[in-house]
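Chapter review: from sequence to fold.
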Amino acid sequence: MIVEAENLGVNYGRTWGIKDLTFKAKAERLALIGHNGSGKTTLLSVLSGIRHPTTGSARINGWEPYRRKDKWIVIRYSFEKPQFRIPVKVHDLVEILRANPMCPEVDELIEVLGIAQFLDRRIDSLSSGQAQLCNLLVALSCDSEVVILDEPTAHLDSYRAGIVDELISKRKGVIIATHDVEEGEAVADYFLIMKEGQLVWSGDRKKLFSSEVYEVTLVETGLKLPFETLYRFGATLIVKAGVNELVEMMLKGVIAGFKRAGLRYAYAKSS
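The token string follows.
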């Protein structure tokens, strides 16, 4: 999958949702990372074909999604907030999907996602998490060239979120938006970090983990380490240190573990 933009902008009157975005990403799974209001959802709306850009252009595999009449066939888009407001039961939705020959994975995903537990519930009475699972069932059970997921694990507990991330990590042609750096690292192989409607960092996994900087988890919050600390996030520190030094700290019980710094460091550094 090749996703690219050239001088892309979306104007909302007095403000720009995104502005002057230019990038080219070749990836099986692309993650947009950023805080609320950073422009992630606006970019997804263009890439899904829902919105035309004000300036510039965007392409997926060479075509502009907002100009394709068949975009609803080649693209599946899962919104952050489930859009189910219909008085039918979950199993009615399931039967509709089962009748579609383009949706071969319905029954498997029903079991994996835990939807079998509430098949007899009305969709408009579901909790936010249950509605999100139905949202993901629709997006992931059917064949399409591209799947676009906006905050796919919002409203889910950590266990279900882990299952969803595992499913996404095995697919090709996926674009997700998330503010969760751990989720981004778990599923994607190319990353775009956004801030206030602009692109502040981009790169693949090799670039992301190329620096000799580590993310360290302290056994107790507030402890100080004999290393250069670049950033502190509670019990998580971004430090410059050697592997042997970190192993020694872990054996002494000072730190619980460490890993090569990734999105958290790239996001903090670009802010």
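Two observations follow directly from the output. The chain has a mean pLDDT of 90. The two ends are 28 Å apart (CA to CA).
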